[in-house]
Design brief:
The complex is a heterodimer. Chain A is mainly alpha-helical. Helices cover about 75% and strands about 0% of the residues of chain A. The radius of gyration of chain A is 23 Å and the shape is globular. Helices cover about 75% and strands about 0% of the residues of chain B. The longest helix of chain B has about 35 residues. Chain B has 13 helices and no strands. In chain B, helix 1 crosses helix 4, helix 5 runs antiparallel to helix 6 and helix 9 runs antiparallel to helix 10. Chain B is an all-alpha fold. The chains are: A mainly alpha, B mainly alpha. At the A-B interface, helix 6, helix 7, helix 10 and helix 12 of A face helix 1, helix 6, helix 7, helix 8 and helix 11 of B.
Amino acid sequence: MSAADFTQESAALARDRQGHGAALLRFVKRNPTMTIGALILLLVAILALAAPLFAGDPVSMRPAQRLRPPSSTNWLGTDHLGRDVFARTIFGARVSLYVGVAVSVMSILFGLVIGLVSGYFRRADAVVMRLMDGLMAIPGILLAIALVALTRASVTVVIFAITIPEVPRVVRLVRSVVLSVREAPYVEAAVSSGTPVWKILLRHILPSTVAPLIVQATYICASAILIEASLSFLGAGTPPEVPTWGNMIAQSRLFLSRAPWTIFAPGVALALVVLAVNLLGDGLRDRLDPRLARRM
Amino acid sequence: MLAYVMRRLASTVLVMGIVAVFVFLLLHLSPGDPAAIIAGDNATSAQIAAIRERLGLNEPLIVQFLRWSGRIVQGDFGISIFSNEPVLRLISQRVQPTVSLALTTIGVAVALAVSFGVLAAWKAGTWIDRCLMAVSVAGFSVPVFVVGYLLIYVFSITLRWLPVQGYVPIEQGVGPWIERLVLPSIALGLAYVALIARITRASMLEVLAEDYIRTARAKGVATAPMLLKHALKNAGVPIVTVIGIGVALLIGGVVITETVFNIPGVGRLVVDAIQKRDYPVIQGVILIFSGVYVLVNLLVDLTYTLLDPRIRY
C-alpha cells in the first residue's frame, strides 16, 4: 500500500462515523473484484440451498421429452433422458459448493497441524517435508482418481481424495510462516519465560498463519471445485446418479452437436463459480497479504 | 556445481522412492483384498488364493515392496490385468500422442504467456494490462473440458474448419497431425498460459523498477531491447520456476484433454485402466508421470545458474 493510499484510507476511517452504508459503499468501490466474486457466490449459495423449493425435479426421466431445446417449461432444455437441465444445474451447485468448502476446511486443518509441528520441531521437519515432497510429486488429479477408483465412489471419498494432494501445499505455507516467526523476539521472549510449547504454537505462532491461510483456502476451494468436476467428468468421481456439473457434462458428451445446452449450461455454471471464488481470493490476497500481492 | 548436481540428483531419487511407497501403498492399504479386486467379482476362493500365491501377497508388506520396487528399477512395471501385456509396452505404444500434445502445448503456451506477461508489465495499469490479466484469471477458472467442448462446437461442428476428434501419427503427414493438435493444445494450454503470464508480469514489474532499467532508458536503449535483454533476462528465474511447477497442471490436463478429444495417449490409457481397475497400469502411469514431473523440476533447478550467474552452488 502506498503512502497516498494510506492517507486516503485514514481519511476514509475518519468519515466512517457518518454511517455504515457509506463505509460499505467505499469498501465496494475499493475492492470491486472481491465484491463481484462474493456477490456471485452468495447468489449461487442461496440458489443452491433453496433448490428444492423452486428448481423442480432433477432426477425423474421423461424419455418422450429427450434433448428438447430451452423453452418456457424447461428453461435450459432437457438432456438425453428427458431430465430438466435447469433443475440439474441448480442442484449441481450444491455438490460443488459442498465439496469446495469441505476440501478447503479439511486441507487447512490437516495442513495447519502438520505444518505447525514440522516448522517448530526440527527433528520432525526433515521426515515430514520429504513425505510432503513425495506427495507433491504425484499429479493431484491422478492421485485423486486412483484413490476414488480404489474405494467405492461417494461424495465423502471424493472429498478425501481431493484433500490429500492439497495438504502438502498448506503444510509448506504454514511451515514457512512458522520458520520466520519462531525467530521473532516475542517468541524468543515467550520461550525464555518458560511458556509451554502448545501455548507458544497456539498463541504466538498460529495468529500469523491466519491471513495467508484464508487466502490459500479460497484458492483450494476453487481448485477443489474444478477437480471434483474433472473427476466426475472422467467417471471417477461422485456416483453417476448424483446431479453434479461434471457428471452432467460426462453424460451429455455424445450429444454435443444435437443438444449443446446439455454441456454448456453446467459448463458455464462451473466456470462462473470457480471464477467467483478466484476473484474473491485475489481480493482477499490484496487486502490481507500485501507482500504477496506485490509479487503477483 | 558438480556437488550440487549430485546432491539434487540424490534428493530426486529419494523423492521418487517416496512416490513409489505411496503408489505401492495405494493398492495394498486400500480396503479390500488386492487379489479379490484383481480376480474380479465372479472369482472363486480357490482362484483368489492362486492369485495371492502368484503375486506373492502372502509375504510381509515390506518384502512385497522391495520385490516390486526392485522390478520397477529394472524397467519391469508388471503385466496389465486386462490385456495381459507388459505395462511398459502399453505405455510406450501410447507415448507419441501424449508427448506431441504436451510439447506443442508447452511451446505455444510459453511463447504466448511470456509475450502477454511482458506486454502487461510494460503497459501496467492501462486497459491492455487489465484485459490481459482479466483473461488470465478467466483462464484459470474455465475447466479444460468446457473449453475443449466449446472449441469443438465452434470450430469443428459449426464452422467445420478443423476435424472434431482423434489423432493422426506424425508419420502419416505433418499437416493432419498438426490439424488435430490445434484445438487440444489451446484447451490444455489456457490455464498454463494464465499461470505463466501472471508470474511473468509480476516478475517483470519488479525488474522494471530497478535502477539499471532507468539507466538503460536514460542512455537511450530502445524499448524492445530494453524489455527483452535488460528486463526479461533478469526476470527469468521465477518464470522458469513456474513453467516447471505448471507441468503438474499440464499432466492433470493431459488426462482430461485426451478424453475430450479422443486422443489415444497415456492419459486415455490411465482413465480406461481406472474404469477397468487395472492396477498395474494405474501404478505404472502414476509413477511415470511423477517421474517426468520430478525430472522437469530438476532441470528447472539446474537452469538457474544459466539464467542468473549470481546463483552459485
